[in-house]
Amino acid sequence: MKTTPAPLSRFSARLEPAATAMVWWEPGRRLEPMAVLEVPLRPGDSLVTVELSTICRSDLAMIHGDLSASAPLVLGHESVGRVVTAGSEAVDVDGEPLRCGDRVVWSIAAPCGACADCARGAWHDCLSAREYGHERVRAGWELSGAFATHIHLRAGTDIVKSDAAVPAVLLAPLGCNVAAGRPALPGTEPASDLRSAVRQVERAWRHLPSRELTAATLPLSRVDEALALAETDDRARVGVDPRS
Ligand SMILES: [Zn+2]
Ligand SMILES: [Zn+2]
To answer: Residues lining ligand 2 (ion), CB within 5 A?
Structure first.
């Protein structure tokens, strides 16, 4: 009897040079770099290079020990980036396949991938969702936070493609803004979902004052300084740019 090989359901993306993620261990300790050479991807997963991660109040609460966390973990959940590689079933919120080079923004939570709801693709019903930037580092999902050169987006994450011209500082916080019910832009109503927030910013950004379009950014190796800077001035928007 003739058999056909099973379709490739998982594959590993090898990274050369290795991805770097900054690992948080405990309050008062500097973040430490971790190298990741290989990322195992399921069909709905994607690997994204981080363009910019903005610093959130919850990142600051975490490093001070004001939020409970299971360390070690990779902080950062407000980002924009570009797809490096994607599984055969990795799609955006419109069901469009993710392609290498797509500029994307994503939600702060990822479905667990293991429960009955996840098994039937009902991602939004998952009651055990994981949160980017808040998960203990574990084998196979080391790149779970955005203070890193790359992030591993799990199947079922809300992913929205965006216009390359939109300043990264406007796109990066949108996932967190939507989850927290904050407006995408000052003086507007909160968007109901991530897609709406991204489209709103795409329409409006050219009319914003220039100070809204920039952030104080530091390279990934200086993430501790970026966190300290975000702490000292509420008004400054501070980000980490892993490409610099
Ligand atoms: Zn946030
Ligand atoms: Zn689940």
So the answer is: 111-112, 115, 118, 126, 128
